[in-house]
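It is worth pausing here to work through a concrete case rather than discussing structure prediction in the abstract. The textbook approach is simple: state the sequence, then state the predicted structure, then interpret. We follow exactly that order.
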Amino acid sequence: MVVSADAITVELNGQAMLFEHNPLLKDGTTLIPLRSLLESLSANVKWEESTRTITVSRWNRTVRLGLEQELAYVQDKGQLPRQIKLSVPPQLIGEVTYVPLRFLSESFGAAVAWDVREQKVVVRTKSPIDAKAWEYRIIAGVTDQTAEAFGGLAEVKQKIVKQMDAVNQRYREKGFEGSPHFKIQSEDIYHFQGDGRKEALNKRHPQHEFIIIYDAFPDGGGGWYGGEAQSIYHAWPTGDFGSLFESAATDGLVHEFAHAIGNALDLYALNVDAGRNPISGEGYKAERSIMEYPYGETIWDNHTIATINKAGGYPVQEEERFLAEQFPDRMEIVTLDRDDRPLPHVMIRLYPVPWYSNEVLKEPIWSGWTNNEGVWQLEYNPFEPFFKGAPWGIRYANFLVEREFADGSKRYEWMPVDQVQLHRYRHPNQPYRLTVR
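Step two, the predicted structure:
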């Protein structure tokens, strides 16, 4: 049963949406006119009469829906489409096409909530609707204590603008497909009383892609907060690494912005201390990069460049999925002798490295034998993508690969997540093969 929802207000980023035709309720799902929603979200829409299909695109994502069809398809650039079952499909009522508000809003990165008291649907986009590729507008908040310590707000504004100029310089001509530009103006810098971390987590900024909170007297560390916050808590007490506006702090901002614009990995989270590897006693250090250790570093690793390019200069739609999707369809470990002949019947064991742990776990989570061609094909992805609550939606950061031969001898290799995903970026239709000799 479909009923008019004229008593329901839909609010987008604090502004009531105006409709020529009222929203509708069907089986507990709010339906609104297609074009009203998509114009509000600055999305493009195409109607295919022969198949009665609606195609909606925004940034790097495309959504396809069919009238009266329960299955919808969401596809990101370079990915296979994902099939989603709708509780209520799109409807043609009179001459107006109605679509499920929550599904389409969330598909394009918005959060949807129901305000019971005011009887309204609240839609919030975590990034501005009018975002432009590779241009990121910044708003900055400064704690009162910080402003006072650095000569007052007027002086701090100058320092922030100068620091952002330095950040922009670090992103130029580094292999990115576009030229990332972080734009801040003096009038977009404010001061406030209270806790810097809470401000970073709770301050909404619908007209700006990101917010930075400057705090020279933090109670704990800072970093990038994704989700609805889309903020950097620039917590930097004056000490051995200098002050809030000196070079090391600027290096830290460069690192955090890579998380912001491309959901980039912390490469240091893949590292292993030799003393915390009970299996082979070997350490592992990720390749040199701003994402491994930013201070004084100017080099970007290839995985981070590929990940930022994958985002295409727009805010990442679903952070928990973005990197979890970037794995090859098939993964194999190939064992060869010194003459490149296959070694069959070699036992392979995979020992996981959890994120940020710097250690190899004592028990393998996968094991198997190479076949007559010296190949062990993994039945499942051992990194366990889409693991709820895991960093970047991926359970494990790295693996120590153990090969045990017929004579009982063992040899070891590393299989870090960035190198596996980099293979997919470069060779999207080929399996990942770790070849060991």
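Step three, interpretation. The domain at 318-436 is CATH 2.60.40.1120 (Immunoglobulin-like). The CA atoms of residues 40 and 277 lie 53 Å apart.
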